[in-house]
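TA notes, week 10

Several of you asked for a full example with nothing omitted. So below is the full record: structure tokens for the whole chain, then the designed sequence directly under it. When grading your own attempts, check the secondary structure regions first.
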């Protein structure tokens, strides 16, 4: 069973940012900090530096996080539902099982990030760079990928039902048992898809 104790107690100040609901932490430097299980709902995280952070199960839904810098951070099982992450940098971030439902990720850079088993349902990713991203087994029902870059992305077993793929770049993307916007299955395969291993 995963420990749910916050790495930083509620109310603690880290580099000028008080760890709490409705935190006001624009442009603070939290890089490489351990923020696992920290509660930051409804917070102002605009331009904050989360590069290399350890933030598993961090909860920050309904937050303002435009231009957040989270490259290389570990946000596994983190919650960003309904947050504004416009133009955020999540390059090579660990985002497996993370929740971005109905989040605004327009123009975000998620190059080579791991979003396996992630939740992007209803999210807006217009013009986002998702090249080389791992979206295997993810839920992207109703997501808007208009003009997004999905070159080389792994879409194995992803659910794209009702998603908008207008002008999406998919050169080199892996489609395997991928549920497409119209309900069809792209490249149905028995057994494991490419890059998948036995559990």
């Amino acid at each position: 069973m995963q420990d749910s104790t916050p790495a930083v107690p509620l109310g603690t100040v880290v580099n000028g940012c008080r760890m709490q609901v409705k935190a006001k932490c624009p442009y603070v430097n939290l890089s490489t900090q351990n923020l696992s299980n920290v509660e930051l709902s409804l917070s102002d995280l605009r331009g904050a530096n989360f590069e290399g952070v350890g933030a598993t199960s961090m909860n920050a839904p309904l937050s303002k996080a435009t231009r957040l810098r989270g490259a290389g951070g570990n946000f596994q099982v983190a919650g960003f539902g309904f947050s504004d992450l416009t133009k955020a940098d999540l390059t090579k971030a660990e985002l497996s099982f993370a929740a971005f439902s109905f989040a605004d990720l327009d123009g975000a850079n998620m190059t080579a990030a791991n979003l396996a088993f992630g939740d992007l349902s209803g999210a807006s990713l217009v013009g986002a760079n998702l090249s080389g991203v791992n979206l295997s087994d993810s839920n992207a029902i109703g997501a808007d990928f208009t003009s997004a870059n999905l070159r080389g992305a792994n879409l194995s077993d992803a659910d794209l039902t009702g998603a908008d793929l207008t002008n999406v770049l998919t050169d080199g993307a892996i489609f395997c048992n991928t549920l497409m916007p119209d309900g069809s299955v792209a490249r149905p395969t028995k057994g494991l898809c490419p890059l998948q291993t036995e559990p």
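The longest strand covers residues 13-14. Use that as a sanity check on your answer.
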